[in-house]
Design brief:
Layout: H1 2-17, E1 26-28, E2 31-33, E3 38-44, E4 47-57, H2 60-78, H3 82-98, H4 100-111, H5 115-134, E5 142-145, E6 151-159, E7 162-166, H6 174-185, E8 189-193, H7 199-212, E9 219-221, H8 226-235, E10 239-245, H9 248-260, E11 264-268, E12 273-277, H10 283-295, E13 305-311, H11 312-328, H12 347-363, E14 367-370, E15 374-375, E16 385-386, E17 389-392, H13 399-402, E18 409-415, H14 418-426, E19 430-431, E20 433-437, H15 441-450, E21 455-458, E22 474-475, H16 489-492, E23 493-501
Parallel strand pairs: 7-8, 7-10, 8-9, 10-11, 12-13, 12-20, 13-18, 17-18, 20-21
Antiparallel strand pairs: 1-2, 3-4, 5-6, 6-23, 14-17, 15-16, 19-22
Helix pairs in contact: 2-8, 3-5, 3-7, 4-5, 4-7, 5-6, 10-11
The structure holds adenosine-5'-diphosphate (ADP).
């Protein structure tokens, strides 16, 4: 441990003392170009003395240039056969595989999540890229009988057009890939805007696209703020589709702007996910699931297990084990392989999470069973570290049980029955993920049927989605779309129904039909 720490400190010091931080450029029309605006430093959330690089704080003019490039490239890309488009994606997948380790280290450094999880994030981008590339030889439409003789009916997918992809910082490569790859395989051209805190991972992804031979203008990267670039993309008349993963608040702003100009809008927003732990559950397994779900990525996942709804018969036993496990988690720089929980993303996040910890104790009156501190001393002095925090004796109506905290904080809520657990689990504004721990198949199916969420797990945590299944949520989590799986193709393509009349005469549907029965 001491040795690994020393090596890490040496590396960090070297990075700090090294050359002036690299300046990164936007990628527009197949070229790396400077912004017409300013540059902003991006720093490691585990050690803010470590400058990762200088990234563009781009302008509306930069965004407009990227949109113009995407518009110019659209026809060429749209008319490139999908299997050819997919060949380039397969090549992107190979490059991502080749450089996985570097991307993983970059991600831990810019975002904070521990190396193992950053590797998982990159792997998800690889999986998504290969899976989506496979769609190049499918992109299935369908045929169906026509109601008239000598007439053929079919349905095909066509690209939407120019897409604006706006992504968050918590899955810095996986989420951009979930949007970028299906957009490309369907024949769209894109402008992607990563979150301000994590531009490097998207830069790496776009670099891989460039190396793989994506034609100029098909993928454009503009880095900068949501209020400038995000807003410009959302309001630009040429952008036909906005795909956003972010907060519910931003989602509402983006949805209204898209509604104003009749643009397509796909949203993936917050969650307040519950694990239900029944009295017949394997408690040790449930504790492991809860720890992983609540404190993985420092709780900064939209699928984080932020509510643990526990049958009263096992409430004490579960809570005790949970607290013991939470207290044993090692907090620190995610680049140290021994660390379990990395920092949170930035100082705003610290403030927000600490304010909820305060609300939990004072306003709500729950019991702070462990954690709750912002760590600022010693090794933690230069990062954003918050202890894994467990509140017990939480009631379903408390703010900490209703609102998304997006940090290493979870609430344990006691209940008397499965039915009560289901009511509590459903009793929030979100509907992303839920889980049940039970040995009883009837209870498991009952819960699966009654939980109004987009994702459901049995005897597993609320996190762990795979790329070939649809991902998304109900209620305040989304707006009816699903990413991943083949369902994502319905976001990035539009259906065209095609009728071919080979009768050689006018046949009027609904009018000239010969009745089978008079
Ligand atoms: P988070 O709380 O996870 O940071 P945000 O919703 O603030 O979520 O950010 C998600 C993405 O949306 C980021 O890329 C951010 O820059 C962008 N964004 C923020 N505000 C807007 C906006 N008004 N219009 C478009 N995009 C925005």
């Amino acid at each position: 441990m001491a040795q690994a720490k020393k090596a890490l400190a040496k590396k960090t010091k070297k990075a700090r003392a090294g050359k002036r931080a690299q300046t990164y450029l936007n990628y527009i029309d197949g070229r790396w170009v400077p912004t017409s605006g300013e540059y902003a430093e991006n720093r490691n959330p585990a050690d803010t003395r470590d400058v990762i690089g200088r990234f563009p704080h781009s302008t509306e003019a930069d965004t407009d240039e990227a949109i113009a490039a995407a518009a110019r490239a659209f026809n060429g890309w749209r008319l490139t056969p999908a299997p050819r488009r997919a060949e380039i994606l397969f090549r992107v997948g190979e490059i991502l595989m080749r450089d996985k380790e570097k991307y993983t280290r970059d991600m831990t450094r810019e975002m904070g999540k521990v190396l193992k999880e950053a590797g998982g994030d990159v792997q998800e981008a690889i999986d998504c890229t290969y899976y989506t590339a496979g769609e190049g030889r499918r992109l299935h439409g369908f045929t169906t009988p026509a109601e008239m003789p000598d007439k053929f009916a079919m349905c095909v997918r066509q690209p939407v057009g120019l897409c604006g992809l706006i992504t968050p910082w918590n899955f810095p490569m996986a989420i951009p890939s979930w949007k970028l790859m299906p957009a490309l395989v369907c024949g769209n051209t894109v402008v992607i805007k990563p979150a301000e805190d994590t531009p490097l991972s998207t830069y790496n992804l776009v670099k891989a696209c460039e190396e793989a031979g994506i034609p100029p203008g098909v993928v454009n990267l503009v880095m900068g703020s949501g209020s400038t670039i995000g807003k410009r993309l959302t309001n630009h008349p040429s952008i036909r589709l906005i795909s956003l993963t972010g907060s519910t608040e931003t989602g509402r702003i983006v949805a209204s702007a898209c509604a104003e100009r009749n643009a397509i809008c796909s949203l993936e927003m917050g969650g307040k996910n519950a694990i239900m732990i029944m009295d017949d559950a394997d408690i040790d397994n449930a504790v492991e699931g809860a720890i992983w779900g609540a404190f993985g990525t420092s709780g900064q996942r939209c699928t984080a297990s932020s509510r643990l709804i526990v049958h009263k018969k096992v409430y004490k036993q579960f809570s005790k084990k949970l607290v013991e496990r939470a207290q044993a988690l090692r907090i620190g720089n995610g680049a140290d392989p021994k660390v379990d929980v990395g920092p949170v993303i930035n100082s705003d996040a610290v403030e927000k999470i600490m304010s909820y910890i305060d609300i939990g104790q004072n306003e709500d009156g729950a019991t702070l069973a462990c954690g709750g501190r912002h760590l600022t001393k010693g090794d933690y002095a230069h990062g954003y570290f918050i202890e894994p925090t467990v509140f017990t004796d939480v009631t379903p109506d408390m703010r900490i049980a209703q609102e998304e905290i997006f940090g290493p904080v979870t609430c344990v809520i006691p209940v008397n029955s499965l039915d009560e657990a289901i009511d509590v689990a459903n009793g929030v504004q979100y509907g992303l993920s839920a889980a049940i721990y039970t040995q009883d198949v009837n209870r498991a199916f009952h819960a699966m049927n009654d939980l109004y969420t987009g994702i459901f797990y049995v005897n597993a945590s609320t996190i762990g989605a795979e790329v070939h299944l649809p991902f998304g949520g109900t209620k305040g989590t989304g707006n009816g779309h699903r990413e991943a799986g083949t369902q994502v193709l319905d976001i990035f393509s539009e259906w065209k129904s095609v009728y071919v009349d080979y009768s050689g005469k006018l046949q009027r549907a609904q009018i000239d039909n010969k009745k089978a029965i008079d």
